[in-house]
Amino acid sequence: MPDIKHFDPDAALERAEHLFWRLGAATVSIQAVTAETGLNRSSLYATFGGKRQLYLAALRRYVRERARPACERLAGDGRGLPAVQEAFDALIDQRCSGAYAGWGCMLVNAYAGGEAEDPDVRALLDDHHRRLRDAMADALAAARAAGQLARHVDIDATAEALVLLAYGVNLRSRAGAAAETLRRTVATTLAALETPPPRAD
């Protein structure tokens, strides 16, 4: 007779995701995971495997539910620089207010912790980086087509720089940086990319 689970695996995984996101994998013990999810060790191991497998599953869930949809929205927006501005505004709002304020980004947190040394984790991080960089490049290409982008702007290099700026927002917000400070930094960066206004004669 098949084993019947008397709990919702995705709900348990979401709680584990929040725990790893907030605290980092290195500091989270199995005891903490069982307390957070309400599962005993045998159910946890039978469903997800050990702590490493659980962390990977939680990171994949974060990518699927949070990171990838944001990249897809930006890539498909088509408005150019306003879309980039809106994406950063949403990011700052999420990082500085609401239920997850001060948690940063689970993916960027993995770069800062020892998790990135795991090749499977690193593969997830690299894939996300590519997706976000490509989304930024798509938005910049739309900006160029709309005449919003200054001639000197290199789309590929600038897309990479904007990804690094997003990482910085995530790290600084986790360290307690004020939302207004982050907004000014983003606004200054994006202003430098814009087509200068026509000179008055």
Automatic annotation (TrEMBL):
Domain HTH tetR-type: 6-66
Single GO MF annotation: DNA binding
Protein name (record): TetR family transcriptional regulator
Entry keywords, A to Z: DNA-binding, Transcription, Transcription regulation
Residue ranges flagged as DNA-binding region: 29-48
Keyword RNA-binding attached: no
Gene3D superfamilies for the chain: Homeodomain-like (1.10.10.60), Tetracycline Repressor, domain 2 (1.10.357.10)
